């Protein structure tokens, strides 16, 4: 029997590889970036998880069974509700509150023979939906006087689950808004510094070095001490966002400056100048479009830092303060080790911070690979 010829001519390429190369050369760079991003399953997962987080935060009063500031002394330090399927429908076990006179702590005895069925789309406390109209509809709940606590209750009997969802509004939005301000500021000043050079560049770099040398924690403490305690939650949120923006734009400005310095000597920039293009036109049409991919990646990777910054400030009492609800404010209840060991569910807001930061990092890694689809 004849031996098949397994030899392959030198330089021969599979048909599939040629087709893939032809297909790649015919699609736009935007589609190439999307295709490269979709190849990273972890980045896609991080993006989807973040979309879910923001939707939960946006409609937090609907998903939470109770008002975030509703106090119930009958459920102080109550643990997570126990799920039962008595009668074929999910419900929660009944609890009885008693006082441990030796340790002066509330003790909750569960009685699963008394099942409280979980109801869907129940009416409860009223809330505003995106500031457009009011509603009292909640996704789930149980019949009174029983209460359902998915993640337990705090020292005043407030629902941890609803407060974590509501706290996401502040913690997640501070990251986006703060990074948005710092990105705009860093992009404009970094582009101006790299494009014009000379005295403008020297002055800008000295200002950046001065801001970078300021110790941030004493700065936050000084600002927190000077703020009046009677300012509204919205005003405090705005001030914290501005402060975080003013101390985080320097890194992006220097990176953009380096990019613009390389673009300034390119042939297309010289051709635009010789053609009579103004500085504004050169910057807007040639400098920023080439650096925008890098700016997007840096901004995506900076959001976790802003979230951690707000959480740390609020945890130390320098950021958001009660009655405002944020992840940092919720973690203030877990400052004592004894409280954490007794009521571990108070650390759930910390798990939310970890999840959000991890998802933003995964998304940033995918964007970093997507902006260079030919790499």
Q: Descriptors for this entry?
A:
four-stranded antiparallel beta sheet; MetI-like fold; 2 domains; elongated
Task: Describe the fold and architecture.
With 375 residues, this protein is an alpha+beta fold. The chain has two domains: 81-148, no CATH class; 163-370, MetI-like (MetI-like fold, Orthogonal Bundle). The chain has 14 helices and four strands. The chain has helices at residues 15-26, 29-38, 41-58, 60-63, 160-196, 198-212, 216-226, 233-246, 249-264, 267-274, 279-315, 327-331, 337-342, 348-370; strands at residues 83-84, 91-100, 105-129, 133-142. A four-stranded antiparallel β-sheet has the order 1-2-3-4. A hairpin with a 3-residue loop joins β3 (105-129) and β4. α5 (160-196) runs parallel beside α9 (249-264), α9 runs antiparallel to α11 and α11 packs antiparallel against α14. The longest helix has 37 residues, at 160-196. Mean pLDDT is 84; it is low at 15-22.
Outline:
With 375 residues, the protein is α+β, with helices and mostly antiparallel strands.
Number of strands: 4
Reported CATH architecture of the largest domain: Orthogonal Bundle
Number of helices: 14
Strand count, sense and barrel status of the largest sheet are: 4 strands, antiparallel
The CATH superfamily of the largest domain turns out to be MetI-like
Topology:
Layout: H1 15-26, H2 29-38, H3 41-58, H4 60-63, E1 83-84, E2 91-100, E3 105-129, E4 133-142, H5 160-196, H6 198-212, H7 216-226, H8 233-246, H9 249-264, H10 267-274, H11 279-315, H12 327-331, H13 337-342, H14 348-370
Antiparallel strand pairs: 1-2, 2-3, 3-4
Helix pairs in contact: 2-14, 3-5, 3-14, 5-6, 5-8, 5-9, 5-11, 5-14, 6-9, 9-11, 10-11, 11-14
């Amino acid at each position: 029997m004849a031996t098949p010829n397994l030899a392959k001519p030198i330089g021969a390429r599979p048909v599939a590889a040629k087709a893939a190369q032809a297909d790649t050369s015919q699609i736009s760079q935007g589609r190439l970036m999307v295709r490269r991003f979709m190849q990273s399953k972890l980045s896609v997962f991080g993006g989807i998880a973040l979309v879910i987080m923001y939707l939960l935060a946006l409609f937090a009063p609907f998903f939470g069974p109770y008002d975030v500031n509703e106090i119930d002394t009958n459920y102080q330090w109550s643990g997570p509700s126990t799920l039962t399927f008595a009668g074929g429908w999910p419900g929660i076990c009944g609890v009885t509150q008693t006082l441990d006179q030796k340790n002066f702590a509330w003790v909750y005895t569960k009685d699963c023979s008394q099942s409280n069925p979980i109801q869907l789309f129940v009416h409860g406390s009223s809330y505003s939906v995106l500031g457009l109209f009011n509603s009292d509809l909640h996704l789930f709940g149980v019949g009174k006087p029983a209460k359902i606590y998915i993640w337990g209750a705090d020292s005043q009997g407030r629902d941890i689950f609803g407060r974590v969802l509501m706290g996401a509004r502040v913690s997640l939005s501070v990251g986006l808004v703060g990074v948005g301000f710092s990105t705009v500021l860093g992009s404009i000043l970094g582009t101006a510094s790299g494009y014009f050079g000379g005295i403008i560049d020297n002055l800008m770099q000295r200002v950046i070095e001065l801001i970078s040398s300021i110790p941030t924690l004493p700065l936050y403490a000084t600002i927190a001490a000077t703020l009046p305690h009677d300012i509204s939650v919205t005003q405090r949120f705005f001030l914290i966002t501005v402060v975080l923006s003013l101390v985080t734009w320097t890194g992006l400005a220097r990176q953009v400056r380096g990019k613009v310095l390389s673009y300034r000597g390119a042939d297309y920039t010289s051709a635009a100048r010789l053609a009579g293009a103004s500085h504004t036109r050169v910057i807007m049409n040639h400098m920023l479009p080439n650096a925008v991919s890098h700016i997007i990646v840096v901004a995506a990777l900076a959001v976790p830092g802003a979230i951690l910054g707000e959480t740390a400030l609020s945890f130390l009492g320098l950021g958001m303060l009660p009655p405002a609800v944020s992840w940092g404010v919720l973690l203030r209840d877990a400052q004592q080790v004894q409280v954490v060991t007794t009521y571990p569910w108070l650390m759930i807001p910390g798990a939310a911070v970890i999840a959000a930061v991890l998802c933003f990092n995964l998304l940033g890694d995918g964007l970093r690979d997507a902006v260079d689809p030919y790499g």
